[in-house]
Amino acid sequence: MARKTVEEQKTELEKRKKQLENRIKALEAKQTMQERKDDTRRKILAGAIVLHHAKLKPDFQKWLADELNRSLDKPHDRALFENWFAEALGTQPAPAKAADEQQAAAELA
Q1: Contact at 8 Å (CB) between 36 and 28?
Q2: Band of the pLDDT at 44, cuts 50, 70, 90?
């Protein structure tokens, strides 16, 4: 078997280097994904504890509802807490969007 030239050896090493770089990128992506999953799980668990505490302590529930009410800007985020706000703050929940659309359609008919 003929001995490889320096250029052939260099080409092989460059190919191997590229393969290793790709493996490193894949491992880094996997690590980042796991870190995000872990962070999400921490938030879910912490949120569950906070909401449970709010059920037990009405003053804390009111404080939390006030904070969420002030902090949540996006309508789809606020919608997740509408009934919870109503219970905590003693107000009526906003009617559901679908119900509003059905009522408007009924009025037009």
Answers
A1: no
A2: very high
* Cβ–Cβ under 8 Å, residues 108 and 81: no
* 47 contacts 80 by C-beta, under 8 angstroms: no
pLDDT in tens, 11-29: 999 999 999 999 999 999 9
Please name which of 89, 99, 32 lies closest in space to residue 61, comparing C-alpha atoms.
Answer: 89
Tracing tokens 């879910």 back to the chain, one arrives at 44
At position 24, the amino acid (one-letter code) is I
pLDDT at 24: 98
pLDDT top residue among 25 and 98: 25
User: For residues 46 and 53, what is the distance between their CA atoms, to the nearest angstrom?
Assistant: 11
* SS3 labels along 34-66: HHHHHHHHHHHHHHHHHHHHHHHCHHHHHHHHH
